[in-house]
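Check the record.
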Amino acid sequence: MIGRRSELTELSALLLGGETRLVTLCGPGGIGKSRLALAAGDATAHHFGDGVRFVPLAAVSDPDLVASAVAVGLPELQGQPLDVVERLRDLNLLVILDNFEHLLAAAGFVGQVLAACPGVTVLVTSQALLELQGERVVPVSPLEVPGPGDVSLERLRASPAVALLESRARETQPQFRVTDENAEAVVRMPAA
């Protein structure tokens, strides 16, 4: 993961602290919330006896299907939505619900899980808050980019945003490098 060290440290501390059981990574789409959630899951997996489960929700269009998506994400929990909550009851688990913003009507299901399952912690990535009691919000902002007046290669290469851009660009154009010739264009690119 490029950048996000401070956010990862804060998020891991929240997940390991034991007092916070619902954490929402909130920020614009495409900013890296999912990658940050996965990194936090990796960093804290040792704390959850039954593991970490990632539940992708981008393809789920009906809030009533979130419980079923959780069941699919947790193969050992196949069953009806009520069974999902019941079967989670005795687990010590981190559940990552990814891309929740279009399913906010399913926040009640998350609340049910938290109320009935004391060993379950939920990490949500979303562009909007669930607005549940006890929700802890970790804002995820764009990576910082040097301003147009500060385009020295040294400053650009020290920027996590530029390192990420260079890494992604190399996936399709292996020869891509930030140079004196393209530095000005790099700092003018919109942040994501």
